[in-house]
Amino acid sequence: MSALAKPWQAAGGQLARGVDAVDADVTAPHDARDRSQAQGPGDAEDRALLAEVARGDRASLARLYRRYDRQIFGYLLRQLGDDPALAEEALQDVMLAVWTGASAYRADSRVLTWLFGIAHRKALQARRHARRRPALWSGPRSGRSEAAAGPAASLSPDARLEAERRLTGGELREAIARLPDGLAVVLELTLYQGLSTVETGAVLGLPSGTVKSRLSRARARLRSALEEERNP
């Protein structure tokens, strides 16, 4: 792309790539993908770690945290309105739930899918709680204190937020953020977190057919946004 390309052209190209990725996800053979993911070496390691966590091994919890904290934090951040303090609090709740509930994991899904299921529930709880309480801050958001960092945390919430923005592309993110929550979350889990429609359904408590339907609707919305960018 030329350095003189208009901003809307850059955004349009990014949106187009994002929509193409959604198209591929909707039409992919997810049953085979689910089986291959569940049997992969990475998940075998995760299951071994989780088994150790269930036996009370804090070091294994810390390793699991280091492996997925940024990914889960990014998901929570976008589910909680880009509020880094709220997302960090929810992340700690997720890890506490892992620590206390590791023995409840039943190896019928990837560990990551199980983690996202916990994260989704904690995000919903955080939303409800945030609506009931007064704002705890105003003005610019600041990073959390070291005392609140939790085990093995390496980045402040604000630093993580900036990293997310650099890595994921602002224009496409903004287009997705304008979608209704029910459409945006399926895009988040499939397009950005790499979950299949079956796994996304497990996280959200929805049939995979419903997830595919929502992905198709989200795709149509994004295509409309692309057309608006191309024809302002």
| Highest CATH level, the class | Mainly Alpha
The H/E string reads: HHHHHHHHHHH
How many runs of DSSP E, i.e. beta strands? 0
Q: Structurally, how many domains make up the residues? A: 1
Our measurement of the CA-to-CA distance between the termini, rounded to an integer number of angstroms, reads: 20 Å
Question: What would you report as the Rg, rounded to the nearest angstrom?
Answer: 19 Å
Shape: globular
Protein described:
The chain has eleven helices and no strands. The protein starts with 6 loop residues before the first helix and ends with a helix. The chain has helices spanning 7-27, 30-38, 41-54, 58-79, 84-101, 111-132, 157-168, 170-177, 181-192, 197-204, 208-230. The radius of gyration is 19 Å and the shape is globular. α1 (7-27) packs antiparallel against α11 (208-230), α5 packs across α7 (157-168) and α6 (111-132) packs across α10. The relative contact order is 0.16. Mean pLDDT is 74; it is low at 1-16, 24-36, 133-155 and 163-168. It has 232 residues and is mainly α. It has a single domain (7-24, 40-132, 147-230), classed as Rna Polymerase Sigma Factor, Chain: A (Orthogonal Bundle).
List the helices and strands and how they pair.
Elements lengths: L6 H21 L2 H9 L2 H14 L3 H22 L4 H18 L9 H22 L24 H12 L1 H8 L3 H12 L4 H8 L3 H23 L2
Which properties best describe this structure?
232 residues; mainly alpha; Rna Polymerase Sigma Factor, Chain: A; disordered N terminus
In brief, what are we looking at here?
With 232 residues, the chain is mostly helical. It contains 11 helices and no strands.
